[in-house]
Amino acid sequence: MASFVDALRLAADKQDHSRQVYFAWDFISAGPSPVRASCGLEMTPTGNLDDPEAYDCIAVCGGLIRDLGGIHQATFEYLRAANARGIPLVGLCTGSFVLAQAGLLEHRECALHFDTLGEFLSRFPNSNPATSQNYIIDGNIITCPGSIVAIDIAVFLIARYSDAGRARKALNYLLFKPEESRIVLKAKPYEEALGSAARLTVEAVKTMETRIDSPCSIEDLALSLNTTKTRLNRAFHADLQMAPAAFWRQIRLMAARELLDSRRRNVTEIAYETGFSDTAHFCSAFKKHYSVTPREFRRIMQKDAAGSGE
């Protein structure tokens, strides 16, 4: 919340005077006040839950996962009413848990911190989370994994409701540079082929590399590159000897293999982080490509590491 509000504060006034000139905001909550954050900071509400239409946008903070069971029912009712009116709802960090508890993330995509993914999936199996994007917009709901990437959402909203100049001012004052994709392939066996490939192929591959966790249709990819699916297919077959969809799946599986080797995430988390709709689909694709399941591959890597004394 601090990162989100600080971006608003800087965009709302000239220089760093902190007046709510171009934007205004309230802190609202249900239950007793002031509200105490886990870090000890206390917040006294300046608004109430009477009318969700009093706001152009509502940002939700969830707090610690262990405390989510104590959220007042009035909070969920308020969020459902706001959603029914199409008001933009922003889930900051575990705010996505609150939105999901309110029943608002059913079959929707959402951005989560990797550390909360397993717990989120166990509670809300019908949602579609990702952990490698700064934020995800699905209809009127925007979610982010929290921390400083909340600045990204604030800047998006500032530009949407005001102008890009104020959004840039907030970024400059905060010394913030938006992150690139968090999944970066270490090994790229196709790099040599790209050296002599058409510019269209190179640009398409760059897009695929930054969207390992969220592949789109080849039609949409072609459209984003100002070309046609037919022309893109022709370029890939000439330069890489395979169709764009097959190549995109291949680099996603390469990324999954590297993540499995790192031993920092479980198979379900890796499936979602590499853009697969479910674990079964991921395991099937991985075995078809590498002739072993993800878990078998991880066991082999662990055995090799133990044998080499790593």
From TrEMBL:
Record-level Gene Ontology MF annotations: DNA-binding transcription factor activity; sequence-specific DNA binding
SMART domains for this protein: HTH_ARAC
Domain called HTH araC/xylS-type: residue spans: 202-300
Keywords associated with the record: DNA-binding, Transcription, Transcription regulation
Chain segments annotated as coiled-coil in the UniProt record: none
Protein name: AraC family transcriptional regulator
